[in-house]
Structure prediction request, 1041 residues.
Amino acid sequence: MTLRDIARLLHAEVVGDDGLEIRRVAKIEEAGEGDITFVANPKYARFLASTRASAVIVGKGLVAPADAATVPALVRVADPYASFLFVLQAFNPPQPPLPPGIHPTAVIDPSAQLGRDVRVGAHVVMGARCKVGDGSMIAHNVVLGSDVEIGAGSLLYPSVAVREGCRIGARVIIQPGAIIGSDGFGFAPLPDGSYNKIPQLGIVVIEDDVEIGANCTIDRATMGETRIGKGTKLDNLIQVAHNVVIGEHTVIAAQTGISGSTKIGSHCMVGGQVGFTGHIEIADGTRIGAQSGVHRSVTEKNTTIFGYPAIPQRQALRMMGTLPQLPDLLASVRELKGEIEQLKKES
Amino acid sequence: MTLRDIARLLHAEVVGDDGLEIRRVAKIEEAGEGDITFVANPKYARFLASTRASAVIVGKGLVAPADAATVPALVRVADPYASFLFVLQAFNPPQPPLPPGIHPTAVIDPSAQLGRDVRVGAHVVMGARCKVGDGSMIAHNVVLGSDVEIGAGSLLYPSVAVREGCRIGARVIIQPGAIIGSDGFGFAPLPDGSYNKIPQLGIVVIEDDVEIGANCTIDRATMGETRIGKGTKLDNLIQVAHNVVIGEHTVIAAQTGISGSTKIGSHCMVGGQVGFTGHIEIADGTRIGAQSGVHRSVTEKNTTIFGYPAIPQRQALRMMGTLPQLPDLLASVRELKGEIEQLKKES
Amino acid sequence: MTLRDIARLLHAEVVGDDGLEIRRVAKIEEAGEGDITFVANPKYARFLASTRASAVIVGKGLVAPADAATVPALVRVADPYASFLFVLQAFNPPQPPLPPGIHPTAVIDPSAQLGRDVRVGAHVVMGARCKVGDGSMIAHNVVLGSDVEIGAGSLLYPSVAVREGCRIGARVIIQPGAIIGSDGFGFAPLPDGSYNKIPQLGIVVIEDDVEIGANCTIDRATMGETRIGKGTKLDNLIQVAHNVVIGEHTVIAAQTGISGSTKIGSHCMVGGQVGFTGHIEIADGTRIGAQSGVHRSVTEKNTTIFGYPAIPQRQALRMMGTLPQLPDLLASVRELKGEIEQLKKES
Prediction:
């Protein structure tokens, strides 16, 4: 691999000879000729003067030391650590989680259609009329209900269950134990105080390039679709209720819960353990702090909110900063009352 | 199906000819003779004048337009949208999630007793002395430990695990990935700071008509029973600790956690992400707002509480309403102090 | 079993004849000669005078009634109820969750190494080069990726998934549905607003004597290890992100979430639904109240914190105690303002 290949992989620019042949990835103190390494922390910039690496991945602002005899070629990127991991992975491609082929213990309905190079693990169950796109991998003990569609190049890890009729795009990754298409939570009260289960007739649609974390639960719509937009990433143990719509390239941290029919925009960032009430809309680009309770729609784009209930960040920070002063404030007011009584007597 | 049949299904009254034959369910703008449709939003009442549907499901308060040439038969219900879904389901009965019979890959202990018309999916494991009632369905990759009992007409979705000795009633629905009967969380501290696992010898009892959401965890009792009462509905990812008792027809939203030995009454409604401390009792009919922290027993029936810690709703709303004013309040008090100092000097 | 055997089991002292033969465990009102029972609540101490049990497990401070004709032998312990359960279990050893041997439906890679007396359930999948120590039990439908190592005497309940390369110690218990080694949640933003998945190349290490609750998710490290220290106990539905390190003998209640690279000390106690931000360190012996949001490192050992954000307990209690007074405080300040205006006019 030449430095040019690496630069292309990282969408990066090279300072130095980009025709250099790179043969290995190494720690900066162990690197030698033909090796690439990285400096993520500017305070280690001095290593650039002493390393014998042929190339170093560095941050955009990093300044090479002036006294360096020979400076290695530099690959300038936004995030040197992540970039290093991409290069490390390129040199050591991960073993696919499944061997080629269909495991003989898999139970696949004869009407299911599998693309080229689909891998299916042991004890998989695939229902009637399922379609799985080229190169997708369905790991051990996964269950697909009838009429499930999965695009090309997707990967479902062990023990995932996808219920009937749900549609999953291309290059989607679903971590182990996630449940797609469980019934939405809807019950009509009867006069005697018991409940009648409201039919949940819709499906879940997961668009291309989405990642769903371990043990997440994504409920099917009452009618129509629960939808997760292209490129959106969900961490573990997230609850997505019926008829929720999440936009594109939104990132949501673990254990967040989204109530029914709420719409979350594109390019949002949501912290962990956040709760969304139902039937609200969150504008594109909203950022929400961890453990917030979002009770109202956010109409303005690109704002940051947090708290319980969630309010604009600046306001929330001011408010939370004053909370610990509350006991002293109470004492102050009590004192002021006394002083005013005194003044009133005197006047 | 006649309109009379539909009225019976919906516990509803008909305004018009209830002998009408209904052949199809359709959208209001597409409906014709023999079709039934619905109006959920009163502002669409004007469609009643123009629709060619034979019958319309409407809310109890909806007034038909005075200028309508021919008004269709009306089916008056509390919740037109849910009712429409019930009728839609009656016309299009869902495909059962499993075909009839026992899949040959299921591993069923010879001592297990299966009722009539039990369906068992692929790769199911059923331990010694299990009993499954008539017409129940045990979907793919479900594991039942020994001595598990399941009543008639229940449905366990894929990848559910029920550990040894737990008892599940009739017409219970368990969504995929839920775990019933995992060990309660109890450890006795030893002098060296390590812990000794306290035996968890009890079971879980799930009464008739309960629904358990995807990836819920219901722990077995230390001794005796963890119990979920008849008709109670749990959303996804809910944690129910050892020896918890939940009453009848209580509804609990996703990601709520209930600590050990707490008793929740009947006909309660609990929001999402609520936390209950252990060993408290919640009266029948209590309503609890999302993300609340319930630290004390609720002894009065039919109250509404929320907040962290949860307090009566009116008090909580007043309190939370004042929070954003806190920074201004601090400034005011500071100012008042100054003015009093001034007054004291002057007096 | 003699009373001496029982005392040894409970790390307890006996008051009376420790050579007594104990044959049965019984309730205090039903116990007779040869039986052992317990009194957990001091107000039932009077039963000591009337019981016909040969021995009673009692708390350290319990005083036997002075008027008792014959007092049974006493076994003094810190926690009589838990101790009673240990004795009950000793008399009724639990049935192992699996029969001896390897179930014929298990799919075990030929390169896997199983120790003596390993039990493997139905539909288990075990990848290449897995190692399972003597006496461990791998229950039905568990999936182990390649290169997973499990020590001796561990127990993985049904539907657990352990991804490639993770290492689990001896005497570890993993409740059903837990996921070990799912990908950490890391994405590098691209200029077009989409994300590039950062390789997650590390593993999870679970040390000896750990217990992991049902449906927990423990992510693998980006590089290196996510580590759960010896003897630590996790309740259900807990999220442990990549590169988290938890010390030894720490106890964490259900639904808590720990963000990436956070380090939690040894001998900590963490309540349910707590959230930890990433990259912080929590000192040994810290206690954290349920539903807290921990945003900063805790450097002093053995403190108690809670709240959102979590602050020292005493401060948090004072602050939360004043919150309900906030509306009255606002009214007071408004009143004071008026009075000062009045005084200013008068002066």
In short: The first strand of chain B starts at residue 13 and ends at 15.
